[in-house]
Write a structure and sequence with these properties.
By secondary structure, this protein is an alpha+beta fold. Helices cover 22% and strands 30% of the residues. The protein is built from 7 helices and 15 strands.
Length: 271
C-alpha cells in the first residue's frame, strides 16, 4: 500500500491542501493520501509534534509523512528527508523531528537538494516535498534527492521536573484537544515509578486538587472532573461530557491553559 500522510498548519479554508494533493496525484495517480491534521496552530512545533508522534506509528512501515509547518527555506533552516523508525519524514529542519523523536536517531537523513518548477521558497510543501514523496513512493533512494547530513536541528522537549527530594513531580500542560481535554507531559510509567506504594495528591491550577486517577471518562458522572492516562499514556484532565455550550470544554471550564503546571505530591504512608 502506497501511503502519503499530510500534516500542516494550512487549515482547510484556502487552496493549499488541495494543491499539495493535486501535485502528488499528477505524479502518482494511485497514491493513497491521508490527512493527519491541517488545524495545527500556525508555527506551533510542539503541537505539531504531539499530533504526528501519536499518529505516525499507527500507519504501516514505509509510510511517507509530509510535515508542512514553517517550511520557508532559510540559511539556517534546510529542507530535509529522513528515514526513522521504519517511516519516511519530509519537512523543514525546524526542530520538529527532534520533538517527535527525542530519543531516536534517523537511520538515514539528507538535506533535500532538488528544486521545483515555481517559487519553491514560498510553497515548498507543494513544489518540493511532494516530488520527494513521489520519488520515495516509486522506490527511489534518499541519496538521489539530497546530500547526507548527520543530524537535524534539536530542541529539548519539556520534561516533568522532580522537586522536594523527589517527593513532588511538576508537569506541564502541553496540548488541549478539540474536546477541551487537557494533556500533560506526565507519562504513566514515570508516575508509577515515582509513586511506588505511596499515596498522592494532584494539584491543578486554580486551587483544585484530587487523589484519584480513573481508567475511563465514564468512571465519573457527567460534568465531573476526571483524571486518567489517555491512549498515549499521558496524564489527562477532562470533564466527562463537558457542557456542550463551552467553547473549549474542560479547559475553559477549569480555567487551565497550555503551559500551566500540574503538581503531584507523593505522600509516604504511615507505618
Amino acid at each position: 500500500m502506497s501511503i502519503i500522510t499530510l500534516t500542516s498548519d494550512y487549515g482547510t479554508k484556502d487552496f493549499f491542501v488541495s494543491a499539495i494533493k493535486a501535485a502528488i496525484l499528477k505524479e502518482e495517480k494511485n497514491a493513497n493520501i491521508v490527512d493527519i491534521s491541517h488545524e495545527i496552530t500556525p508555527f506551533h512545533l510542539p503541537e505539531c509534534a504531539y499530533i504526528v508522534k501519536n499518529a505516525y506509528k499507527e500507519f504501516p512501515k514505509g509510510t511517507i509523512h509530509i510535515i508542512a509547518i514553517d517550511t520557508e527555506k532559510q540559511k539556517n533552516k534546510k529542507h530535509i528527508a529522513s528515514y526513522i523508525d521504519g517511516h519516511y519524514f519530509i519537512t523543514s529542519d525546524s526542530g520538529v523531528l527532534s520533538l517527535i523523536f527525542p530519543h531516536t536517531k534517523p537511520t538515514n537523513l539528507v538535506e533535500i537538494t532538488i528544486s521545483g518548477e515555481y517559487n519553491t521558497e514560498l510553497f515548498a510543501a507543494k513544489d518540493i516535498f511532494t516530488k520527494v514523496a513521489c520519488h520515495i513512493l516509486r522506490g527511489g533512494k534518499l541519496n538521489v534527492i539530497g546530500e547526507k547530513i548527520e543530524s537535524f536541528k534539536s530542541f529539548m522537549s519539556i520534561q516533568p521536573v522532580e522537586i522536594n527530594s523527589g517527593q513532588s513531580l511538576v508537569g506541564e500542560v502541553i496540548y488541549i484537544d478539540r474536546f477541551g481535554n487537557i494533556i500533560t507531559n506526565i507519562e504513566k510509567d514515570l508516575f508509577q515509578q515515582k509513586k511506588g506504594d505511596q499515596n498522592f495528591v494532584i494539584h491543578l491550577p486554580r486551587g483544585k486538587k484530587t487523589n484519584k486517577i480513573h481508567k475511563t471518562y465514564s468512571d465519573v458522572n457527567e460534568s465531573e472532573v476526571v483524571l486518567l492516562f489517555n491512549s498515549s499514556n499521558l496524564l489527562e484532565v477532562a470533564i466527562n461530557r463537558a457542557d456542550k455550550n463551552a467553547v473549549s470544554g474542560g479547559s475553559t471550564l477549569l480555567g487551565i491553559k497550555e503551559g500551566d503546571q500540574i503538581i503531584i505530591n507523593f505522600l509516604k504512608k504511615n507505618n
